[in-house]
Amino acid sequence: MTEFTFDAPTVIRAKRDGFRLTDEAIDWVIDAYTHGGVADEQMSALLMAIFLRGMDRGEISRWTTAMIASGEKLDFSDLRRDGRRVPTVDKHSTGGVGDKITIPLVAVIAACGAAVPQAAGRGLGHTGGTLDKLESIPGFTAEITKTQVRQQLLEIGAAIFAAGELAPADRKIYALRDVTGTVESLPLIASSVMSKKLAEGADALVLDVKVGRGAFLKTEAESRELAATMVELGLAQGVPTRAVLTDMDIPLGRAVGNAIEVAESLEVLAGGGPDDVVELTIRLAVEMLDLAGIDGRDPAQTLRDGTAMDRFRALVAAQGGDVHAQLPIGSHSETVLAPRGGTMGDINAMAMGLTVWRLGAGRAHPGERVQSGAGVRIHRRPGEPVSAGEPLFTLYTDNPQRLPAAMGELDGSWSVVDTCPPAGSIPGSLRSCPPVRPLIIDRIG
Ligand code: URA
Fold first, then answer.
1. Can you give the pLDDT at residue 427?
2. Residues in domain Pyrimidine nucleoside phosphorylase C-terminal (predicted)?
3. Is residue 366 part of a domain?
4. How many domains does the chain have?
């Protein structure tokens, strides 16, 4: 019997013309792309076809399984400390603006007694990535061995690392999506997140699924579908998985960028920081501890008593970072002043993400180096009083030629109003000062 062989043009045409991809075609294309048998331009075309045509749940499940099978799977089922099994749990966000939650959260969970093996990603589209943020700490490396990951889980309770040999198909596809306009696709987001997370071997997973203007999927209905799809993928592989839907209409916190977000995370770890960052950190921690079976620990206490900060410092030091080094900040800046007094009305998270990307915090070409010091400080958040002439935003970059385009992106994306209108009363894209939705919208799973 002759074995049927696939080729990239046939697979691309099938999806382009709206057909389902068979299990065999999916297995072949993921394996061939991982090993260089499908070119970047062919995979780009297929990703665009998937972006436009979508995939059903069966295709998403097979695509995810094939991405997991493209590399190794970690196993921490024998992780023991003082003779007792250490539960492992992780969280992943679908991508937001100012979303630095992983940094304090990982430390909080470690301080509460579980272990977090976090395979993290780089910036994607207009959103930041945990690795780009942490690499702004002088000396920090995310390229650590599996042996080091295990040792850190035992000694510190956390490791944050580049996925490396976990789901290498995702590493390649993720980098390609970032520069080919194919990020905002439910099947591609679900398979990207879940392939890394299921390969990483945590006992349980919590997913932070963003909703709103700064999210990849804008409507609550799409985000709910994404959450349900990912929860189903996790449960199908026997991993307890829960999703929390959270608002991403306005940026999280007062800092958006790389080093500037690490600095804000340190404020949270020191018991301060913006309310929304603290609220989301604690809520996700509660969900993670619940799934990990850890009772009687108050995650908020670990921020107050410094135990989470101790874990974060230990993690950074173990991964080569200098916890005492000054964090970089862009050498050029421009500040936007309030044109009038009143109340900060709105800040569009999408526009803010693009502003920071234009300042140099993200990539326009595969593998490009990001600027650690690029970012925006938000001086006034929606609902806060504003005096005429005071600073509202400060933009930082090492490259002053980037400032005009970044200022152009920010222009028209925020407002100062007389008084906050009642929530939900403003139609269209300009939102009220108290956000239309609560920060934590719902839980799925
Ligand atoms: N995070 C990921 O790992 N992948 C995506 O596609 C989006 C967010």
1. 46
2. 343-417
3. yes
4. 3
